[in-house]
Design a protein that fits this description.
Mean pLDDT: 96
Distance between the termini: 42 Å
Order of helices and strands: EEEEEEEEEHHEEEEEEEEEEEEHEH
Structural class: mainly beta
Largest sheet: 7 strands, antiparallel
Strand order of the largest sheet: 1-2-3-9-4-7-12
Oligomer: single chain
Number of helices: 4
Low-confidence stretches: none
Bound molecules: fe (ii) ion
Radius of gyration: 20 Å
Shape: globular
Amino acid sequence: MRDVKLAPWRRTGGKGAVIYLYGSEAVSGMYVAEIPSGGSLAPERHIYDEIIYIVEGIGATEVWQEGGKKHLFEWRRGSLFSPPLNRWHRLFNGGREPVKFLAVTSAPMIMDLYRNPEFVFNCPFVFSERFAGEQGYFEASNKRYRKGMANLWETNFIPDVGAAALESEEKKGSGVNITMYEMAGNSMAGHISDWPAGRYHKAHYHGPGAILVGLQSSGYVLLWSKELGLRPYAGGHGDRVVELRWKEGGVYCPPGGWFHQHFNTGPTAARHLAIRFGSRLYPAGFYTAMKRQDDGVVISIKNGGTMIDYEDEDPEIRRRFEAELKRAGVPCEMPQVAYSG
Ligand SMILES: [Fe+2]
């Protein structure tokens, strides 16, 4: 995110770059933008969801509706928030350094459907069910609860994604914590995950468009189409397994219906931020259907979900991980596994 080359962006008044990742399959969009020191971006409103992660700097966002009161909230590096749907908003730089942020949106899908930027950016409709001027709307909330098999956090603001407390989600992998956030009544939501050094997640798949951001430590990801089966190496398809390296500041996006599996080979616990469809409060069918059921990504494929338990995975996956850790000088902390079949 930090190294992407930015260019002047006439519409926003700052600098930016739109990033198209193959796995986003044009359901989610993404851009990185910069607000100059002492400056602000042009006000905008739009009928697509937008979730913003602050990569660098400090500042504030002003939110309002035509003729209404202005709501102001402050943020800094690591903050996550979302301007409510179609509400005017303006981002200000509050520091001496440029502000850099990553935004993930549902703009590609909305643009494809309506094909009219004037409508998308200049529609007067007020979605008051999303935001009706509630006091404290843009403050971190404590509304955390369990829904199905997910840890949900309904909050319209996360002050620092890197420091947010997470709940255990051991079913997703040894030592894994995952908390899902639901923000501003959006169809887009996401989660924050962390897991210890020397460990990795179980593989799983779902619909397209999940943008994943590396926040701490480093490692790699394995991705393969579900058509290749649970054990792609044993099945002779090892050459079609994609391996990506991730690190702090890196962004990647697994295509829909592709197994993906996150490995930590760095010396510290790893942390990821995901911005995606798959809201548990306002589900998007295309994303949810591929999981086959609400909690599909937490349910073993044996039981009708889309996750591969350690005992069902390709033994080559563990061998590769152990070899990578050896090279990195990090001890393997994975539990022993007795392979099925
Ligand atoms: Fe995933």
